[in-house]
């Protein structure tokens, strides 16, 4: 395996290290996981056009072939010493035993979801977000043995609504996840927040805040920064009770809007090129409450000042002494 100017390659070499052929390539870092059987048969993973790992088999004096097609892609794979079997763990947590002679796959372990170990907190009614592998529409999520409502699922991310009726206390609860046919169950701790607060929604990959533009054309980013005077929609969690209560699992109403009852305030801190504060300004908040049509998701609408001049900005929203803050790209005034 080697790094090149174009990315990464898996190269088959001779005993002296002379390059013979490039077997697989990837523009990004990739785990090819090559393994040899005793007779020289080679198993390795190769990325497809969507980036999923495809198990490839190369027997002596033959050309590489796809061993088996997997909808989810392979996470790990290894070949047996006699070259008759390949063991594959899929990205959905399946363990497969594949015969190399006819590519018949036997499922040894069913899909087993796995969440990155963590402990979680939320205020009742809000969602928590889990990230991991093997998450499907059939995954089971339980809070102290009772099913949780799935607010949304996107790839390997799922949002679960904590029931509105869950008592607010310092007691610890257990959330467990399992596949519908899996013998394994994963447990982790959950604690309710004792007071409403503000937690910005963030992307799982780079923790970028999920702030939508005024016209909802997309999220605020360095490539598409906020504009002075624009009203942004900040997607958040844990704002607590609202003036038009909804039941657990019910989508939030659009008319009338369900507004948060706990007072809050948002501020923008302008920072100069030397990272020194230039000005702090309170922001107009036209709305704070449940996002219409969503389950357990809140939003705070804030109007940015029209006369921003500093090259950097920091946005903060708080309820008393609780809240969240983040840097935010704002375009300069033309």
Detailed description of the structure:
The protein is mainly beta. Helices cover 0% and strands 45% of the residues. The protein contains no helices and 29 strands. The strands form 7 sheets. A 5-stranded mixed beta sheet has the order 13-20-19-15-16, with no helix packed on it. Strands 21, 22, 23, 26 and 27 form a 5-stranded antiparallel beta sheet that branches. Strand 2 and strand 3 form a beta hairpin. The protein is flat.
Structural class: mainly beta
Low-confidence stretches: none
**What is the helical fraction, as a range of percent?**
under 10%
Shape assignment: flat
Q: How many beta-strand segments? A: 29
Sketch the major β-sheet. Answer: 5 strands, mixed
Query: For this entry, what is the oligomeric state of its chains?
Result: single chain
Strand content: 35-45%
Q: Between the first and last Cα atoms, what is the distance in angstroms?
A: 50 Å
Number of helices: 0
Strand order of the largest sheet: 13-20-19-15-16
Which key terms come to mind for this protein?
mainly beta; flat; 334 residues; 29 strands; single chain
What's the structural blueprint in terms of helices and strands?
Blueprint (H helix, E strand, L loop, with lengths): L1 E3 L2 E7 L5 E8 L8 E2 L5 E6 L5 E6 L6 E2 L7 E6 L5 E6 L4 E5 L5 E5 L4 E2 L4 E3 L4 E7 L6 E4 L2 E2 L1 E6 L2 E5 L10 E7 L7 E7 L6 E2 L10 E2 L18 E7 L27 E7 L5 E6 L1 E7 L7 E6 L8 E8 L2 E6 L7
Parallel strand pairs: 13-20
Antiparallel strand pairs: 1-2, 2-3, 4-5, 5-6, 6-7, 8-9, 9-10, 10-11, 12-14, 14-18, 15-16, 15-19, 17-18, 19-20, 21-23, 22-23, 23-27, 24-25, 24-28, 26-27, 28-29
